[in-house]
Amino acid sequence: MNDFKVLTRDSGNAVVMELHGFLDAHTAPDLEKTFSDLIGKGKYKIVVNFNGLSYISSAGLGVFMAYIDEVRNNSGDIKLTNMQQKVFNVFDLLGFPYLYEIYKDQDEALKKFSDK
Amino acid sequence: MKEAIKIEASKTFRSTTTALSGVRDFVNRHAVEFGFEDREVSEIVLAVDEACTNVIKHAYKGNPDAEFVVRILASGSEFQIIVRDWGNSFRPDDVPIPNIRDRSRKHRAGGLGIHLMRKLMDAVEYQGRDEANEVRLTRYLRNEPKP
User: Fold this and answer.
1) Statement: residue A90 has pLDDT above 90
2) Contact at 8 Å (CB) between B81 and B41?
C-alpha cells in the first residue's frame, strides 16, 4: 500500500498544504476533502508544498483543477511549490504551468500572497 | 547494446483503487528488469495506473467484486502491457483531447488520464475481444529501432 498524507497550517494570510506520499485515484479523495474544508472556512489563499510527494496521477491533478476557479473567484489562488522533477513532468505534460503559478520554493509563493 | 530479455508475466487484481499500488509495483519491477531508465519506468507505471483507474472507475463503475488482469509481454525492444477487463466497453475516440483552460472553467477533470497515456506511451490501442475489453500500451526501449 502506498500511503498519502496531507498536512495544513496557517502562514500569514495564507494556508500551506504539505503533501506526502502517493496521490492516485485511491488517495485523491483525501486531498479533495482537505480543499473542501479549507474553502468551507473561507480560506482561499493556498500554497501547496509538493516536497514530500513521490507520485501523482491524473486523479490527483483533477483535484487541483476542480478548485482553482472557486479560489480565484474569491480573490485567492492555489500556488504550487517544491515539486520533485518527476511530479513536475506530469504537470508539465498536461500544460498546467499555463494555468498555475509554480514556484521552486514555498517562501516565494507565500511572499506573492503577502505582497498583495 | 545490452542483451534484451523476454518477459511474460500476468497478475489479476480486484477492481478497487486500493489495488493501484500493487499494479504500480508489478509494472515497475518488470520495466526495471527489461532495462528502462528511471524516468521511463515512471512514465510507463503512470500510464498503466491511468489505464487501470479507467477500468475501476468506468468499466466496472467501482464494483469491488470485479477483477481485471494486467499482462506484460516484452521482447526485443518492445515492452507491452495489456489490461483486460470484462466490464462496460469503452470508446476512447469519444474522449476529446482536454483543453486544460476550458476544462478548469467547467470544474471537470475527466479525460486527463487518456491524454496522459497517449503522451507517455509509444502506442495505446483499445479493442474488444470476446467478452472482454483490452487496452494495449506499448513502449520501446530507447536506442533500438522501432519496427
Assistant:
1) yes
2) no
Q: In degrees, to the nearest 5, what angle opens at C-alpha A72 toward C-alphas A67 and A75?
A: 135
Domain extent for A32: 4-115
ipTM of the complex: 0.93
Q: Give the total number of structural domains in chain A.
A: 1
- Residue A65 Cα, gap to closest chain B Cα (Å): 5
Structural domain tally of chain B? 1
Task: For A25, name the nearest residue in chain B, comparing CA atoms only.
Answer: B17
| CATH number, domain containing residue A91 | 3.30.750.24
What is the mean pLDDT of the segment spanning B34-52? 96
| pLDDT value for A2 | 75
- What mean pLDDT value characterizes chain B? 87
Q: Which domain holds residue B37?
A: 7-140
**Residue with the larger pLDDT of the pair B130 and B69:** B69
Q: Would B115 be classed as within a structural domain?
A: yes
What per-residue confidence (pLDDT) applies to B107? 43
Using an 8 Å CB-CB cutoff, list chain A residues near B113.
Answer: 57-59
Given B18, B46, B101, which is nearest A90 (Cβ)?
A: B46
B26 in a domain, yes or no?
A: yes
pLDDT at residue B103, as a whole number: 53
Question: What is the full DSSP assignment across A89-116?
Answer: HHHHHTTGGGTS-EESSHHHHHHHHHH-
pLDDT value of position A114: 87
A98 burial class (0-12, 13-18, 19+ CB within 10 angstroms)? exposed
List alpha helices for B10-135, DSSP H.
Answer: 20-34, 38-54, 100-105, 112-120
Instruction: Tell me whether residues A57 and B53 touch, CB distance under 8 A.
Output: yes
